Amino acid sequence: MLQDEFEIAEVARALAPYWSAFVVRGVTLVGFGIFFLFFPATSWDTVSFVFGALSVTDATFNVIKAFVVTCCIEVENKCQVLLLFVLSAVCSAVIGLIAIFNPAATAEALLLLLALWFVLVGISQFWFACLMASEDDSQNSCCLGFIGILYAVTGVTLIMDLGGNVGFFILFVGLCLVIFGMQMIYFGMNLKQVYEAGGYTSLGEARRTTDV
User: Fold this and answer.
1) Minimal CA–CA distance to 169: which of 125, 121, 119, 112?
2) Is residue 90 part of a domain?
């Protein structure tokens, strides 16, 4: 437990000088999310272009993180971490460019993937509910089973009418972007506090170091 906390503190110290990158990324994601929520797109082209721009932006941030890991931070398994960021950047860039230049196919594929995700989650939830029912946990199993059926029905509904569910898809993506962006901003602001405290993750740690 103490070892895990020490490793987390080391990562926080290493990332603290770059807190602004996390905040900017979070603000960018929230901005895209607000666009989806309050200015819903009326065509596949707009949805796909915004998603493509978001993916290219994310690829840019991954390239920056790869550069930081390579030149500025000493971490274990640096090659694996660098490879992860590079592959993520390449995938995001390719998907973003396809979305920008082939919007109709991209938007349809995204909605289909979302629908399949709902179906798979529903099936897994229902299966888990059946396992719990066999262990005499009927109350929780009924709740999980209902949630699983709800997910599966939602997924099937989306698949049956992809074109007619564009509005739901846009709102869902916008909400996810806002939530994830707020998490990034919160994380960045915490890193800012670590940076302003001289790399200490808590006031108690700073005092102990000063006493020594």
Assistant:
1) 112
2) yes
Distance from C-alpha of 61 to C-alpha of 72, rounded to nearest angstrom: 15
Assess if residue 85 is contained within a domain.
yes
Tens-digit pLDDT profile for residues 74-114: 656 667 777 888 888 888 888 888 888 877 677 777 778 87
Tell me if 28 is assigned to some domain: yes
Note whether residue 211 is domain-resident: no
Helices 103-133 & 44-71, crossing angle to 10 degrees? Answer: 80
Of 157, 177, 158, 179, nearest to 169 by C-alpha is 158
d(CA 46, CA 196) in angstroms, rounded, equals 41
Q: State how many domains the chain has.
A: 1
The whole-angstrom separation of Cα 134 and Cα 46 is 49
The residue written with tokens 């990034």 in the block is 184
C-beta contacts of 104-111 below 8 A and 24+ residues apart? 104/44, 104/45, 104/48, 106/48, 106/51, 106/52, 107/44, 107/47, 107/48, 107/51, 107/166, 107/169, 108/44, 108/162, 110/51, 110/169, 111/158, 111/162, 111/165, 111/166, 111/169
Q: For residue 152, what are the domain limits?
A: 2-204
DSSP character at residue 99: H
Q: Please give the radius of gyration of the chain, using alpha carbons only, rounded to the nearest integer.
A: 22
Q: b/e map of 146-179 (b: 16 or more CB within 10 Å)?
A: ebbeebbebbeebbeebeebbeebbebbbeebbe
Q: Mean of the pLDDT values across residues 145-156?
A: 81
